[in-house]
Amino acid sequence: MQTLPPCPKCQSEYTWQDGAMLNCPECGHVWSETADAAVEDTLIVKDANGNLLADGDSVTVIKDLKVKGSSTPLKIGTRVKSIRLVEGDHNIDCKIDGFGPMKLKSEFVKKN
Fold first, then answer.
1. Residue 101 pLDDT > 80
2. pTM
């Protein structure tokens, strides 16, 4: 019986093989058996127009967004500087003047 390596993302021991690819049933990560272990997965985040976003980019809000805990919405055209990409549903972490730190979904912004 062949022993498979644990998942590089969550360290689960319950990996399974599908052809040349290895799969993790716990986190859903798929990786190549021959992939270099030193190469980390890069986070790929695209804006509403399909442009790739990177840490430090500036973006513009393309839709009025309700802000939880605030009586005023985040208006269309609001510029956000120095974004940081994070994992999750709200994949942009930023600080907006007048609102403070918050997380945004990339589907509601466009790259400047």
1. yes
2. 0.63
